[in-house]
Amino acid sequence: ETWWGVPGFLFFYINDMHTFQFQLPTSHFLCSKTTAKFLEIILFFCFRSRHDVQTCTSWKAPIMWERMFDPDLYDQMHKKLGSSVALTVFAVGRYLDAYLKTFLNSSERHFMPGLPVTYYVFTDFPEKVPDIRLAPQRSLKVFKVERYSRWQDISMMRMKAISDVIESDIRHHRTHVFCFDVDQVFTGRFGSEALGDSVALLHAYYYHLPKTFYTYDSNPKSKAYMKTGDFYYHAAVFGGSWKSVQALTDACYQSIMEDKQNNVEALWHDESHLNKYLWLHKPSRVLSPEYCWDTSIGYRGDIRVTRLVWAPKHYDKLRTP
């Protein structure tokens, strides 16, 4: 993925040698990152400036905020590229009845509008997955998974399930993957601007705090152990190209299993391992907390829109055997 702010114009250089030009208002240079070609296409992105928030990481990856992008331009580009998305979500035990229908219905309204999307629902009760009216180019696949007695194990074992379904199915049909917790509701556009080779999400509770408050795993015996990091990422949302997501889930699963063999469990389970992986393998795109917000935090001036919000948590009822 290659991108940088370009005053005046946005150029798409397509591998069939056609060139598309889109006139944009002049904007401030924001940041740049050069990595491997994405489908052999060099992309130039022009972002509208935000001066009240951090818009680039130290390694020059974009941090996506409202007013930093033109959604129509992103959608045009990804349609031209043939981008398509797999959405994975786990609805196990009481989580299925409590959250899945609302999650899927809200996703149909707001997630990746205009692009082909396949929902991959993992559950212990496939027959209870609700019927959802899907838009054209949208489909749903259901996979049965084991229900573990502890929610922590369900959370951690999803890494293997995601990797397995990428290998057996997703890589043959979709270019990108996004992985979500089910206890969330889409409330605004969560679109193609979020797509990238490796995509991480800033945790709503930590993005404005000093690093000393980040809850990385502090146990040197764990594979998730970290003294410091770049940001604190939320495991409720992560994504990227199918290759990148498969690499992440494989690595996290291997670390989880090594910890298990040593009778160690990371502080925040799969989220701790995800943070360690993303510290060692920097994401090419970072999503602001707009993309997963907890309304109980209250008003924040830098959160101008909410695209995905936490649903009410009922852990006392949902996580009991």
Automatic annotation (TrEMBL):
Subcellular location: Membrane
Membrane topology of this protein: Single-pass type II membrane protein
Record's keyword terms, sorted: Glycosyltransferase, Manganese, Membrane, Metal-binding, Signal-anchor, Transferase, Transmembrane, Transmembrane helix
Chain positions recorded as Mn(2+) binding sites: D181, D183
Name of the protein: Alpha 1,3-galactosyltransferase 2
Binding residues annotated for UDP-N-acetyl-alpha-D-galactosamine, in chain numbering: F90, A91, V92, Y95, D181, V182, D183
UniProt keyword Nucleotide-binding, yes or no: no
Organism, as annotated: Seriola lalandi dorsalis
Residues at the active site: E271 (nucleophile)
Major localisation: membrane
Binding locations of an alpha-L-fucosyl-(1->2)-beta-D-galactosyl derivative: H203, T215, E271, D294
A GO term for molecular function: metal ion binding
Range of residues in the leader sequence: none
Co-factor requirement: Mn(2+)
One cellular-component annotation, GO: membrane
Pfam families the record matches: Glyco_transf_6 (PF03414)
Gene Ontology process terms (BP): carbohydrate metabolic process
Similarity-based family: Belongs to the glycosyltransferase 6 family.
Record text on cofactor binding: Binds 1 Mn(2+) ion per subunit.
